[in-house]
Amino acid sequence: MNRYEKLALLVVALLLVSKLGAFGRDILLAQTYGAGPLPYEAKRNWELITFLVTSALNIGAGIWLYLDATKEKLNRCVWAVFGLFFGLMAIAIFYLVQIYSQTRNQGKV
Q1: pLDDT tens digits, residue range 96-109?
Q2: In the chain, N or C: fewer CB atoms in 10 Å?
Q3: Which of 16-25, 54-63, 90-99 has the lowest mean pLDDT?
Q4: What is the pLDDT of residues 33-46, one digit of tens each?
Q5: What is the pLDDT of residues 41-74, one digit of tens each?
């Protein structure tokens, strides 16, 4: 699988996960609490769940970028930290940078 395909799959996955996650959350909350405002405890629980899922995704992105940057002989620590802070978006930027540098190097040959 080349970089273009990985980037396209990542973008589709980002869109799908964000839309389906928000849709599922809204359905669950509407069924449980109706159309009114959320109770404080339910809101706090959803914030905790969101924090945990986001943290897990960011850690996974950091590991992914560390491994891919090692393969590409790039500064793996910088990309891993970038992944920890920006998550899946950092992976997309990593592949965009790789595609840019590949096309730039092909133009010099």
Answers
A1: 888 888 888 887 65
A2: C
A3: 16-25
A4: 887 787 888 889 88
A5: 888 988 898 899 889 989 999 999 999 999 988 8
Cα angle: 77, vertex 55, 33; to 5 degrees: 165
Q: Record the pTM.
A: 0.74
Distance, CA of 7 to CA of 1 (rounded, Å): 10
CA Rg value for the chain: 18
The structural domains of the chain, with segments of one domain joined by +, span 3-104
Residues in the chain: 109
Whether the CB-CB separation of 79 and 69 falls below 8 Å is answered with: yes
What gap in Å lies between CA 67 and CA 64, rounded to an integer?
5
Per-residue tokens: 103: 């096309």
For residue 73, the SS3 value is coil
Q: How far apart are CA 7 and CA 25, in angstroms?
A: 27
